[in-house]
Design brief:
With 219 residues, the protein is an alpha/beta fold. Helices cover 33% and strands 20% of the residues. The protein has a single domain, classed as TIM Barrel. It has an 8-stranded parallel β-barrel, surrounded by 6 helices. The chain is globular, with a radius of gyration of 16 Å.
Length: 219
């Protein structure tokens, strides 16, 4: 079953709660919440108060929080308290991967690990047994609307093969440049079962139809 996480980085911030409600009602499975610190990536986005506000407005939603920050470990509890259901952080970040995963899980949250386009798939292999989600970036993180980098497909295949070998079944997610009629089917064929889409949903003239088109990939 292919799941859809709608990335609010591409939403209309003037009506963020309404946009999220609309795509969830249309069938999106999660809200993808990108946190950028202006250091790990060269952009700033939003943080704890926005997540807390969305959690209050959408208490039933599943919040897939993606920390694109240099030091994720000190912020784990804050994001759990603000309403995160899953916290993903980058293998390339400064903090210990093992310690950060342990902290996320200690606070009762699901843990995810993210790799950039230049990071090999094998970087996540030692941690797979402790992860609920593995996210492969299809673009350089930091900005929406970029074109998908097709070398990410080989990483998806490698990670899916390793999960199968170990008998593990975390979400295998892909983020960046995901379009329902082009890159999404390729990612699904390569083993992804969680698609993150931002501009393809929130930038569409009809967000409901866009969500339903993604969900139709399940047949």
């Amino acid at each position: 079953m292919i799941k859809l996480s709608a990335s609010v980085l591409s939403a209309d911030f003037a009506r963020l709660g309404a946009d999220c409600r609309e795509v969830l009602d249309a069938g999106a499975d999660m809200i993808h919440f990108d946190v950028m610190d202006g250091h790990f990536v060269d952009n700033l986005s939003f943080g704890l108060p926005v997540l807390k506000g969305l959690r209050n407005a959408l208490p039933e939603a599943y919040f897939d929080v993606h920390l694109m920050i240099t030091h994720p470990l000190p912020y784990v509890k804050n994001f759990v308290d603000a309403g995160a259901d899953c916290i993903s952080f980058h293998a390339e970040a400064a903090n210990s991967i093992t310690a950060t995963i342990a902290s996320i899980k200690a606070y009762g949250c699901s843990a995810g690990l993210v790799i950039n386009p230049t990071t090999p798939a094998e970087a996540v292999f030692p941690f797979l047994k402790d992860l609920a989600l593995v996210l492969v970036m299809g673009v350089t993180p930091g900005h929406g609307g970029q074109a998908f980098r097709h070398e990410s497909l080989d990483k998806l295949r490698a990670i899916r093969a390793e999960c199968d070998r170990l008998g593990l079944s975390p979400y295998l997610s892909v983020d960046g440049g995901i379009k329902v009629d082009t890159t999404a089917p390729l990612c699904v064929e390569a083993g992804a079962n969680l698609l993150v889409a931002g501009s393809a949903i929130f930038g569409a003239k009809d967000k409901v139809a866009a969500v339903r088109a993604f969900k139709a990939l399940n047949g």
